[in-house]
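Researcher: I've been going back and forth with a colleague about how N-acetylmuramoyl-L-alanine amidase might be arranged in three dimensions. Neither of us has a model we trust, so I'd like an independent prediction. The organism is Streptomyces rectiviolaceus, in case that matters for your notes. Sequence below.
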Amino acid sequence: MRGFLASSIGVTCAAALALPLTLPSSGARAATQDAHPPAVRSAESVPGSTQSLPLTPLGSDRSLGGASSEQGLLRREVRPFSLVGVVWDDPDDELHGSVQVRTRASGTGTWSSWQQVETHNHEHAADPGSEERASGKVRGSTAPLWVGDSDGVEIRVRGEAPRHRASAGSPAEQALPSGLRLELVDPGAEPPPQGSTPEKPRTPALTAETAASSAVNADLAPLGAAAIPALSKKETESDLIAARGGPDEAAGKARPYVGPRPRIITRNGWGANEKLRERQFGYSKTVKAAFVHHSATGNNYRCSQAGSVLRSIYRYHVKSSGWRDFGYNFAVDKCGNIYEGRAGGVAKPVLGAHTLGFNTNSMGIAVLGSFGYSSPPAAAVNAVARLTAWKLGLYGANPRGKTYLKSGGGNLYKKGRNVRLHVISGHRDGFATECPGSRLYSKLGKARSTSARYQGR
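Model: Here is an independent structure prediction for N-acetylmuramoyl-L-alanine amidase. You can compare it with whatever you and your colleague have in mind.
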């Protein structure tokens, strides 16, 4: 494997990307960050913004303060935003009830109908007891909802008794979590145009944070590249054999079951602001399984807007929910484009915050959209198959097989239990949730068989 040294920004970023046999061990941190970060970072230098508005009691609950069962905000004009969500103080509290929002399209005066925000109650999060979970920054949060360019908002949140506690004697309403706030996220401007070759670096001068995020992919694409190019199956196999045994031993190695590497749009390609995330990278030991999610952000986006959707989710995960970075390892849009998610290297076992209890030794893939009632496009399902065929293949995993993961704690499996799961699982297989939506979940069998076929099984 070849090494890489980045010195054009006045700092040294070591980027020795090693494939499965020499990847960082569990809990390891990659020392690829700049040693001298800027002392002061002005708000103007950070693209995008977040408005955080406290909710207040509505209707007859106005005199009850924080213990009310219905809170919200009446119609109001606000600064431009494109994504909404609700957060609260204690990440262990659950919001049982409904969250509805309507928005005004920027510059039109036209208000949308009421839209439902998914109250997914911490199933997308870092594992209990993990460093990320124990940071003191994490908040409870709903799923984010993409609403497009907007400058007005109205919201209502109503508490309801949890379904599993409902009985003839139980209250119909329940007090809401404390500290409810409406988060309005502006994704910021699109990155500058790329030119005709998207795999080329975006700019000759990168910030230290962007260089560090890019350097961990240095064996796959040039520093600052907007995309990691696709490889044929033969090229992918040759690279993997050489990485495991070196050129002198490659001829004697068995052909690995690995799919062709798909084209992956990098964090630099979708415009991630690397100053938002925590500076260090976190890793597991391996990748034994992939959990498929839907982002629950709705389906009203164009594929040309996917970068804006990702930047909005990223900001919501970090600034609003208190996570260390984007939660998922990868994202896929409705057109089948694949995006790098949490920083640390697309070929490495980066520790995500996607499936509470099962983040270790797994990866999370979020298909952008909501698929409880809408069917996922075939291009998106195929992209999941292509991505898993490559990434799982690097670690010797059979997409049609099953594996064991140890639970870190959740609402389906107690902490410490070894659970047998599909190598390609849906989020609901590890946690009691609707995610990834019944329509996407029903497509996972096809994704498994297609992924295995790409691997040559």
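Researcher: What would you highlight for our discussion?
Model: I'd start with this: The chain has two domains: 1-44+192-457, 49-186. After that, consider the following. Residues 80 and 408 are 39 Å apart (CA to CA).
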